[in-house]
Amino acid sequence: MKCKKPLxxxxxxxxxxxxxxxxxxTASGTFHxxxxxxxxxxxxxxxxxxxxxxxxxxxxxxxxxxxxLETIKVIGKGSGGVVQLVRHKWVGTFFALKxxxxxxxEEIRKQIVQELKINQGSQCPxxxxxxxxxxxxxxxxxxxxxxxxxxxxxxxxxxKTILEPYLAVVCKQVLQxxxxxxxxxxxxxxxxxxxxxxxxxxxxxKITDFGVSAMLASSMGQRDTFVGTYNYMSPERxxxxxxxxxxxxxxxxxxxxECAIGHFPYMQCEDQESGPSFYELLEAIVDxxxxxxxxxxxSPEFCAFVSACIQKDPQDxxxxxxxxxxxxxxxxxxxxxxxxxxxxxLEAPVNYPR
Length: 354
Fold this sequence. Notes:
This protein is an alpha+beta fold. Helices cover about 30% and strands about 20% of the residues. A five-stranded antiparallel beta sheet has the order 5-6-7-9-8, covered by helices on one side. Strand 5 and strand 6 form a beta hairpin. Helix 4 packs antiparallel against helix 6 (about 245-260).
């Protein structure tokens, strides 16, 4: 199943094959990594740059610049950088500006470059849109679409639990995003969690934060690196073993179950503040049976959906494409469930001017 939606505002296209990575800063302050050129004027790929600019041109020509943006407030902080709510001075449009300081570690730098390419090349309505990218004064800046209702974590904080009809709508949109990432972009996200699933007032759910994802050359889509939030890691990942796309499915299953029962599945409600330690979680995920939805509280379809995701053996997990046809998703497709009604009734996580 393809999930494409042309984005006319995007300036670049991403080549199908990765090029060898050679990274350096030119004298003019341009970040050059393989086929990618990035500076305070914006981002271009070398192939497109050569085709569209004169051979003697030294600058990347963009009408949009960081100077056009004014900061409203900080709306997020994390290991990946700071996220600010910004407004275009002349147009009035709001964006989320993610600023990532340059890191000289090779693995971190590669992740940043992949985030740039994945965001710029995204053509799926269930993946957060990156409008522009910049490099200036040792920092990368991503101008992202602003999801005005925050993340799924913000929603759960207010409603405590999410009812099955709304969860089906959330799951369908996240799965459509994962089908795009897994099948078309050959990407394992590696950090699916409530705070990386963003929501807007229209009820749209979109996947964000690819700073911890990887572009995979192998058709098997396997990685053996340890990146991401360990709470939602699959058994094979938290053990440090090789993993594939199905690790994202495990994470999705935990997220959905958490939204349904109101707390992280590997902790009790009273332990919500501290949570399990890494070693306690490692033991629970690896040695104990996987968590499940209580059959006396939820429908058989929902319990089966969670079970299809949270299987300790990766080969037993359903794929993102298969899960789109799961009875739990199909059960509510004709019910006209409007997630926008739920999220619009909640207090916005930031003071978003309407």
